[in-house]
Design brief:
Radius of gyration of chain A: 23 Å
Distance between the termini of chain A: 38 Å
Strand order of the largest sheet of chain A: 2-3-4-6-5
Number of helices of chain A: 11
CATH class of the largest domain in chain A: Mainly Alpha
Oligomer: homohexamer
Helix content of chain A: 40-55%
Number of domains of chain A: 2
CATH topology of the largest domain in chain A: Hypothetical protein af1432
CATH architecture of the largest domain in chain A: Orthogonal Bundle
Shape of chain A: elongated
Chain lengths: ~325, ~325, ~325, ~325, ~325, ~325
């Protein structure tokens, strides 16, 4: 029986399979007796599998070259304890195929364009012209990558569009808390949220699927906090923003991890910097709690979660 | 020139003064030559002053006995380096005097009855009948004292109605964040906020002006977290609440200080307990930041603030 | 050659074996061709082995049902790298078989009934009637489980009767030190020892062999210290014990781990609470030292012991 | 009215006083007009007072020279806000005066000769001849000073005979615990107690009243733990004690403070070293608790005690 | 008797005094009856004293206006417990007066021009043209202030020219250690020393006497480490220095305090950054030790020194 | 093809091999059928391999007995997954074979005799006769072992002659820094370097190839710092050195690890002790950095290095 659109992690040797996958890498190789074939790494949300198109054709190579998403039909084999997909048929995604890239890889629960629009509407809420202009400049500079960058290599929001999603939720939470704590200057809150992690884009090398291969040289030697401060300094000077405003934003970036051992040599000295820290940590923790409890039965505890100081989280029984 | 309603801290020897004050203590004493006089401690928001009514009369004693707020006219003297008020005239507050107790002592910025109403409307938002009933029972039990109790002996919200105000703001912030993080069970958030500090009423002895004289015996030996847990256990058993619900609420109280060295031997294991901790600390910090920056000129730093890890807070120049 | 009463850990494939074992679980199963057989898990102090009675008989099933301790004769096989015992003959322990359960599972070095008697004689030494009555009530409530509960899941005293043995030794040491430090109120010392860990019975799920399968829901969310405090509160109120006495005992339970990071948010504030902490830790350490040095040759060090901060203990040469 | 044997701290200007005091320092001085007088510092358990004998006589000087304890009659004056005693009559303590030095200065509650006898009887309990001989040698070497040395400059047992008293109580407690934990080698416990603090005699300079003026040069640069180790090494080599025994005793001294930050770079690696640590700390804590609660009313807390991590100790109401 | 050039700290009421002092502030004031006088604050290495020129003359005002160093003759009075100098005669320093500013205020032991020359000769030793050019640019930018800036507000090298002196000694020590550890790239060591603290000039406001009045706004919100990184980034970009070189220097500045809690969120990742840290701390410590032991007698300890973790330093007896 | 002098770690089953190796252990054994053979453990810098000489001859046994370094020809086999060398021919190192022991085992980069000479010339630089004599005595006492002892079991300088090399580099660096910080007493620096780790020889058991098998009993129970202090005390007393000098040297040894948790209960109280600490740590770190970066490509980071707090070190691109 042919399995349609079964997750890669669930494919079993001996089965036939048909479905949409993402091509991560591919290469035209030769067998020991000189015959050409195509070697492809296919991925979806649940894992990856090596696939072989033993009958090399120009057309097949073009399919692999031209497409990210392909529809594949084949048989699952086992080779030295590893699963392999013998491809019988492959074609590119057609316009009317009902499949999106976000269905194939781990990604934020909102479409990235939609998130970007929401973010930009928040930028418009900044009343101070200089601050708004600075934020606008920097966000635009990194906009392309912001559409797909994750917020981390591992841990919270480490998926496609994770950085943008993290920023958006912090924006929303910040806006809400600003309604309770009315003395807060929302311009700095919005700008701080927008800039606090933006240089993760420079700190980490990520591909367009939101997967971080490594930290960059500058990322390892300085880190995104320092990189972010330099970004504000440099772009602020270009724009000619009031010096105090630039420094206050730099201070917010500098202090947002709060503790020296987590990378912030200064503690927040303005209410907006203090709030930024809590917006950041609340969003990270809510993410971790929500995802850690996924798939846990009511009345059960999770295993120890290293990220959360080895806590075992509990999913209540009566939680309708 | 007679100073009308000058703050106590601003009275200067040699001045005449007339105004409303609060009587904290009073006593009928005798001079060395046997003459009776009345010795009174008057206070307002800014401090306290010893006052003497040298002409003892039955009427004056009754004024002091029957009133909290009095109108006093007198002269400011200095005696051994300490200011003293020689009272020439004293009467109780009349119905049409435009003065409220909250104008004379440090207190929450919202009237306590109004806060209590708001709190009760939040209780009604709890959907789970058992939880709502438990919260309702406990709040009612302590309602009288909740109207005036401060949230601390020193530090944040240590004034008349401070505990209630702290709870109300956390409620509001919790409600807002619940709109962003939709998977949160708001019943536990509302109940957790309501119960997390309620036993400060048992931990500290406070007078009706919101001033804590000392911690109670049980408060010192156990503390309000442990006292709160026992309260939930006992009242929960009386009501016959589902055992898991009771324990989850106890866990929220137990873990809300987050760190063992601040009194929480367990870290939060549910998202609601995690959020409760952040609602608590954000409200305390916003209070501290707002009040520490009062009276600071733009472009200036505060002195080092012990409560905030010796930070010097900054009030920006361009903060309209 | 048939091995008589060889430890399970020493059984080797190919050997015949005959001896007494404990039945931990058993089940009547069917082979793929529908034949019934009995599947048993046998344990002794050194480990466990799966056993099969391929010839199902009603009699054999009754033996497994009616007995904890059985005498088994069989052959040791190896199946997929795991040892298995093919049972040829099985019978229950007969009255004159010279074997006790404490010889088959790790357990305290004193019989549990004897320990319980000793404990009860200490309860009688409590002079204050209210305290004695409270302790008596709580110990009686948990007496059945106290006879076999271990003191921990892992670590010190984690064996059959370990909790009772731990309490008894602390009682003895407390009595002795009370002779040196005469100002100590022994009523609180005896009661404190009795109550400090009693709610480990509620914190952990243990079977009647003293093996902990897991912590309970309430155990994970609150822990035995908090559970113990609630126990004293509730039972104390029922008895109508003087409030200060109840709170002092609760304080002793609360503070007996001494350090916040080990679960005690308050440090001891009475001499008796202080002493309780040291009785607890000395007994745990003496246990760890004694057992860690078992089987070490004179003049040798143990390996690093994680429980004891990675120390290598030393067994002296000249220690006659 | 003449106050007889009133404590120094209670003398009031204008009173006459008569009683026994200890002479701490005295000096023959001259007034501005050349008249000789004697200036004396008198002390008792409660404090010290400056005294003047304005009529210099050879006899009075001899009284001050020849005696520690004197009987003084005089008047209490006040000079620049400080109390002073104008001496009218002074004589040395007579044989039949019923006063002991231990009544005038803070000291251990047992006579020092009695403590020393008790200690020596414990030395005889050491079965190993080499260890007994080593302990005997070292104790004899410091015996004279051990009779009066305090155990500390400040803190616990910082009074006349305090070191000896501390050792004695640890001996007693060690003997008792050895009856509970039978696997302990008591020879090492007794020797360890005897030697663990003996070099405080070399670490601190104390006068014969048990008052420490300062630490010695070697005391500051090395400390009594290191000094004690060297003492055992050196004396052990002289006696020709088995090397392992010497090193085990040195290890006990080295590890008895337990934590590196309190001076022990190694943690105990033998049960006897472990027990020594607990004997030491229990004796110190019991001392601190007992003395801190002296003079506290039932139902009251002490002030915060720095030595005990700022705890407020509690004296129960119902503690008969 | 007139004291010539006595230190301010040694002036006693009643004495006459004549000597050179530095004018810190001066003001023309009026007495209550309208008479003009000049109020001056005089300082030297040992302290400061208020001085009054009661006979106002235009000439005297010009002396105070035109000079830093003045010669003053007067009488020492005492006013409300504070010493005051009544000036009888005042004149400016004449060319042939043998007095230098460095004799009047705490300052580095080498003349600042000489130190600057030495520093510049080290810059020439940098072989890499880009690095040399960057260092040269930045040092020149701050050269004027570097001539007098202290290295700290309090603590080590907090005197005139202290920053320059600190850099010079580190240069010398770095050069020496480079001879032992030959694999070290000296270009980075020299550049790192030059740049590591250069932005203390932006972090602190100091006057030309090397006295810091306060930290700057940017200094408090960001700190000299972050400021230094931005300086290298900005100047490096202007020069067009190779990006890796710029980042390596920024990393050296970032990591030179080594521990997060001292301001370095990253630990050194190159040997040169590691060495820079040790050059910095050794120079600070050698300074502290040398100065703390000044004025201590051989065989004596200093008081506890807060800066050095409350150590008491020792000056040996036999230290010729 | 026969591999000549291939590293042991690179030998592959099936290859022939010929080269020089070190004999670590050898034994004459018998096969199950009674035939004698020689079993040898051969080592070089890269690892060890078991070798068999199946044809036992008296001559071959003598070769193994008489030589450390042998030349071996044989075949590499694989036996149960482990490589083994079947020896066809073996002979001792001949005088004109161009091979040194330092080529076969990890060792210091300078010949040990040369290092020892250098060390002795530093001893001659000590001006104080008593200190020089003490150092000379102790170094001579351990000279034989100092020639080959490593400085550690693992970590920095853990190879043949490592201890001596560590001392020599510290001497050189100390001499250099003494030129910058002229107030330092170099006698103590030289003596301190010489003595600070000398008792590692007593703390660890090492063979003549610089490999530590284990710590000694005294090493584990006391450690080289305490052992070094006793050494100075004992030898100092024999020589009759001035007591203060001895104690200052003991203090240097005691404090050279600086932090209590690293074994130093006292912090340095003299400038020389302070400097000794930094000489020690700098030499260790320079060693670690230099060796960790060996074999890393320019522009790359190392893996996380546990010894260096999990840092990833960076090797710059442009580091010619």
């Amino acid at each position: 029986m042919t399995k349609i659109n079964k997750n890669i992690s669930e494919l079993r040797p001996g089965e036939k399979s048909e479905g949409f996958y993402l091509i991560k890498n591919f290469e035209v190789k030769k067998t020991t007796n000189g015959k050409q074939y195509i070697d492809i790494e296919l991925v979806d949300k649940t894992g990856s599998i090596n696939a072989k198109i033993w009958d090399y054709t120009k057309e097949n190579e073009e399919v692999a070259t031209d497409n990210s998403i392909v529809k594949v039909r084949g048989e699952v084999l086992e080779w030295n304890g590893t699963k392999q997909l013998k491809v019988n048929k492959i074609r590119g995604k057609l316009p009317n195929d009902d499949i999106k890239i976000s269905e194939l890889i781990p990604s934020a629960p909102i479409e990235n364009e939609e998130m970007m629009n929401a973010l930009e509407s928040y930028i418009k809420k900044i009343k101070d012209e200089e601050i708004r202009s600075l934020v606008d400049t920097i966000i635009n500079k990194y906009k392309d990558r912001l559409l797909y960058y994750p917020a981390a290599k591992k841990n919270h929001h480490s998926y496609l569009g994770g950085l943008l999603y993290h920023m958006l939720r912090m924006m929303q939470a910040g806006e809400k808390l600003g309604q309770v704590y009315g003395f807060i200057n929302m311009d700095y809150v919005y700008a701080g949220v927008m800039l606090h992690d933006i240089c993760k884009i420079l700190e980490m090398d990520a591909d367009t699927y939101g997967v971080v291969s490594d930290y960059t040289m500058e990322g390892k030697l300085l880190g995104h906090i320092i990189q972010g401060i330099k970004e504000i300094e440099t772009e602020g000077e270009k724009i000619g923003i009031d010096r105090e405003k630039s420094i206050l934003l730099q201070h917010m970036v500098l202090s947002h991890h709060y503790e020296p051992e987590f990378g912030s040599p200064k503690k927040p000295m303005t209410p907006e910097a203090e709030l930024l820290h809590f917006l950041d940590i609340i969003d990270a923790r809510m993410f971790d709690f929500e995802h850690s409890l996924e798939g846990i039965d009511p009345g059960q505890f999770t295993d120890k979660i290293w990220l959360l100081d080895n806590r075992n989280l509990y999913k209540p029984m009566n939680n309708e």
